[in-house]
Amino acid sequence: MSADALAAAHPKDPTVSVLEVRDLTVVTGGHTLLEDVTFSLGPGERVGLIGESGSGKSLTALAVMGLLPEGLTATGTVQLRGVETDLLRIGERERSGLRGRRLGMVFQEPMTALNPLMRVGNQVAEVLRIHGTVDDREDATQRAQRLLADVELPDPGRIARRYPHQLSGGQRQRVMLAMALANGPDVLICDEPTTALDVTVQAQMLQLIAAGVADRTSGLLFISHDLPVVATVCERLLVMYGGRIVEAGPTEELLTRPRHPYTEGLLAASDLEAVDDQGRLPTIPGAVPPDGRFPSGCVFRNRCPRGDEACTVWPGWSGSDGDGVACWYPSEGRHG
Amino acid sequence: MLVQLTKRTLLLLASLVLASVLVFWFLSVLPGDPAQVALGTGATPEAVAEMQERFGTDRPLTVQYLDWVSGLPVGDFGVSYVTGATIGPLIVDRLMVSLWLVGAGMLVALVIAVPLGTLSAVHHRRPLGTVLAGVSQVGIAIPNFLAGILLIGLVAVSWRLLPAGGWVPPAQDPVEFLRRLLLPALALGIIEGAVLARYVRSTVLNVLREDFLRTARAKGLTPARALVRHGLRNAAVPVVTILGLQLAVLLVGAVVVERVFVIPGLGSLLLDGVANRDLLLVQGVVMVLVLAVLLLNYLVDVLYTALDPRLRAAA
What we know:
The structure holds 2 protein chains of 2 kinds.
Chain A: H1 3-9, E1 19-28, E2 31-41, E3 46-50, H2 57-65, E4 73-80, H3 92-98, E5 103-106, H4 120-130, H5 137-150, H6 156-160, H7 169-181, E6 187-191, H8 199-216, E7 219-224, H9 227-233, E8 236-241, E9 244-250, H10 251-256, H11 261-270, E10 318-319, E11 324-325
Parallel strand pairs in A: 3-7, 3-8, 5-6, 6-7
Antiparallel strand pairs in A: 1-2, 1-4, 8-9, 9-11, 10-11
Chain B: H1 2-28, H2 34-39, H3 45-55, H4 61-71, H5 87-122, H6 127-141, H7 144-158, H8 174-208, H9 211-218, H10 223-260, H11 266-275, H12 279-307, H13 309-313
Helix pairs in contact in B: 1-12, 5-6, 5-8, 5-10, 6-8, 7-8, 7-10, 8-10, 9-10, 10-11, 10-12, 11-12
């Protein structure tokens, strides 16, 4: 059965999660980059994926999209609502049919993510035409302009005729968002969508993302290392380190009562008011190991203040998918 | 855009004037008076002087230069010292032949280079890519006169499929024209294709790493369609630049290939002129070759801005 037929068989059901990722593991040449990543996205749910650079956030996104670089292989299951087959097990042609239609993605770098030789209006129109969601060229052009208007670009008719280099970073990122949302995807993945933007432009962009997701009841996977940004957008957070999810929970609770020492470290590091007795900002000791050479057992143990003998064995997940922690010595004050 | 075009055009004209001065000057300082050459070693000084007056070579160099250069825009290249023929129409005739050869050679080169280079880039670090890169290396190592001789030996002599040389104008017999064009075009184009394939490969490799290609796939294009729709035009920008430079190389290569295949092109005319010490003829042919190269570079510049909107904004 084709992906289209499957999608038609399952209308947008609010109780079924739009995306189910189970035990997602990515390896390259015997080296594990991502291990047992498990999470789900409900319709209209906004989930944040946080962690330092090199923790595997972007890799998770690319694995879900099926855009892993050559040489990397993913195992586990990625289930999209309405598609019976596991996304990791379907062919490239079918996957292409889902990308841009059921799965939308906004990348970090707006300056290089658009084709420099193509007018932006045509680039938006293309995503409609690829999936046959418009009647003809004329229709695609008009729909593209409406999408550009949706992301609050002024004078969309004029912007559509521009080339990427004639737009600002914020405008280009809006174009990217318009493209990602064009076909009303079930899942929108935003990988550091505001990191390259000015602070003044960030807030508008975040509003547009939240509004776009709400209009379409899409699930949002929002990747960032910037806690304040994530806190404004997401209802639920996943904390990632060393290619594993180490803690998950509702935003409010996770930020006020973290359980994993890594989450505590992240929170302390993002608190710019706090200083230690020598007047320095708090940091997490050590650094993310180069080339993803994390220790065996608990991946955080070599940087963890509580690490001991027990931590040479992976602690396993305690709690539910959406609210839990993987630590031998979690902080008290919350279940799990 | 218009400002840039005007600038480029002025630059082209200035280059042409400078080139005409250099060509004229280099050939006039060569030893061997044309009148003396025309009359042979037994000529009396009076006869030589009379001949010099007839050629106009007794006048000051600047006057001779101005006389020569003022004729060029209207295609008046003067009269041959040796044969007495008007040079202009002769060059035009031969130029048409060479243009057919160079054009066909370029077409062969492109037909080889674009798929070969793209494939070897897409199969980078896989067996097919390595084999294709190796093939283009071998191609680069072969000089085109050798390729020509090998082709004649195989296709014309051993297999008797095509004629070994000669030329038939397209208007006279189109089929015979193509039959005779094919081998020299292959000799010229195969090598050029190998050179060009390496540029195509490295540009496509760069394009494959671009973020916008990942965006194209995120939109739902398969890797192959993403490359064709978004990658190749981006790769075309640097390749067109190289193409312009390589066309000049091809023109020079045509001189040799025309010799091998006995084709009455500009190259043959040039070599004949040199052999007969026909100074004015050589001067004219060299000037036309310079004009062709400069004009090609000019066209490449214009094409470049047409391909890449970012360059239009720079004006």
